[in-house]
Amino acid sequence: AQSVTQLGSHVSVSEGALVLLRCNYSSSVPPYLFWYVQYPNQGLQLLLKYTTGATLVKGINGFEAEFKKSETSFHLTKPSAHMSDAAEYFCAVSDRYGGSQGNLIFGKGTKLSVKP
Amino acid sequence: NAGVTQTPKFRVLKTGQSMTLLCAQDMNHEYMYWYRQDPGMGLRLIHYSVGEGTTAKGEVPDGYNVSRLKKQNFLLGLESAAPSQTSVYFCARRREYGYTFGSGTRLTVV
Known about the structure:
The structure holds two protein chains of two kinds. By secondary structure, chain A is mostly beta strands. Chain A is 0% helix and 53% strand. Chain A has strands spanning 3-7, 10-14, 19-26, 33-38, 44-50, 56-58, 64-68, 73-78, 87-94, 104-106, 110-115. In chain A, the strands form two sheets. In chain A, strands 2, 4, 5, 9, 10 and 11 form a six-stranded mixed beta sheet that branches. Chain A starts with a strand and ends with a strand. Chain B is mainly β. In chain B, 0% of the residues lie in helices and 59% in strands. Chain B contains no helices and eleven strands. In chain B, strands 2, 4, 5, 6, 9, 10 and 11 form a seven-stranded mixed beta sheet that branches. Chain B is globular and about 40 Å long. Chain B starts with a strand and ends with a strand.
């Protein structure tokens, strides 16, 4: 069964610093991987996703993630943090061959704080 | 989150009361899902549906029931609400590997 582990429930960076949010997955089949962002009291917004093809995926708001099969990782990065990036971020894997018909399996989330 | 509408957006229930959360999509996509979000737990699957008239249990189904009488609508019911069901509930639809989420329902059970 697929699973997702996000390392670090809280990450704090200074404005302008590199953002690195870690995600490792467990899957017996090639995974489809996603990153979502949630601003306070709002819904989920897709940042980026990996299905097939290029392993470096670019998303919205300057974020990108790299699928590394050998490390079973899909870490999210942004070169320079902005105050508006403060939010909670969720990594997810699609259970596309499992019993729940393509359900998204989420990590527990990482709250990103950006210090001025 | 155009495409998936959840009602209501907020609700406070007393323990033992019942209610139904509605999820409506503006397309005819087969796959729909109900999740709950709790602090530090991410989103967890409650029930899902692969088409009209079909539903199945997810990871945390206890205390909930669902129905999909029309393809556009996926209803989540709480027959006898408990404080442990205080949560934010999200509905989603899937077309291939594109997911659309509703804006959520914040439910408090007192």
